[in-house]
Amino acid sequence: MNDAAPGNHGAPSRRSVLRTTAGVAGAAGLGLGASSGTAAADDAAGAAAPPRQGRTMAGVPFERRSTVRVGIIGLGNRGGSMIDLFLALPHVRVTAVCDPVRAKAEAASAKVVRAGQPAPAVHAAGEDDYLNLCARGDVDFVYVATPWDSHFAMARAAMLGGKHVGVECPVAMRLDELWALVDLSERTRRHCMQLENCCYGRNEMRVLRMAHAGVFGELLHGAGAYNHDLRELMFSPTYYEGPWRRLWHTRLRGDLYPNHGFGPVATYMDVNRGDRAVSISSFGTPALGLAEYRQAHMPPGDPSWKETYVSSDRTISMVQTARGRVIRLEHDVSTPHPYSRINSLGGTKGVFEDYPARIYVEPDHKGHQWGDFSAYAAEFDHWLWKEHAAPPGGHGGMDYIMVFRLMQCMRLGLVPDFDVYDAATWTAPVPLSHASLRAKGAPQQIPDFTRGEWTKPRSGMDSVKPG
Known about the structure:
Number of strands: 14
Strand content: 15-25%
Helix content: 25-40%
Mean pLDDT: 91
């Protein structure tokens, strides 16, 4: 890796990353080696951790600060709405915004001014201007909400510029990039975190506290998903900035978006905090949904007719943990389906399933009849949801809860609820599910990104309210 300083054009630009990822078609392009299912492929999947280049970031607190200064890169659908949540928080200032589409950057700047803050610096001078934002001296935290292709380069630039960074999912698309982010976080002593992780939903945080209280007994299995019909949005000429999301369906066969489902179940099971995800086996259906939608809705001559879709309409992965637990992950954005993240957890005393929320645990329930999950709210709702009963923002308010808690940890100098090891683990199914599908479902080893720290219990999402 060339660790050029931010602002130095030796660092990779978003455009160069787009070029290098555009041709990804096989395991070799994912940092997995060229093998297609043998023991060599398992070795290439990175089970053996490379030598540590710095000290662990597990349990490392933020530096305490009275005000958190935020720089935002990417001001489209996601970034353009998330800026409102940063502006809603006291002791948080948005000091810089960046987007190659100047109108979006200027609209975000106007929002900051309307919120009563000084006008932020605007970086809109092309695809590489994010490097200059990351080099600024008036930014403590960089928030990245751009197309997936650019996440790695931008997180890298932020940490090299001395900034903590939060990235929309997935945090990177390749296994070697995940290791690079872990190494860079450890070397620079900057946190790199996976945002939009769905761990802060009210149901998710209630299940987390119930799991830790032993309500489900010894945990055995869980499930999470991103089943969300995105066909209309992926073919929309205006919703996304270009066809970047749809084009990933021409490159990778596996689970393109595992974080929403994997993150919550991993927290229930204390993955990286007493347990570890060790392997993944993935299976997928034919890729038919996007082509059928195009046939029905896109006019002749539309650029999409040049595309060949390879990503499975439904990908199902089984993750095994060191303690013998099983996590099922699903991904489907190409067929008709009501929105569901599944969000299930089971143990020796019972099970919870979401969408809709329902529970069956002994001795509270019997007769094979689901119970009322809301009955557990008073005892087990997390303090964040008791303090913010009706939070603003997307995903049912979980986005606000996530931003509030992250900014609180930064202001008070606390250890973050999640870290670079979680980001890498929750994202690893992107390249590894692709490799497993190419290997006809053969298990792929998930690296121990913590390098042994997972055996040590430590704090996580089930936090104690600060005094």
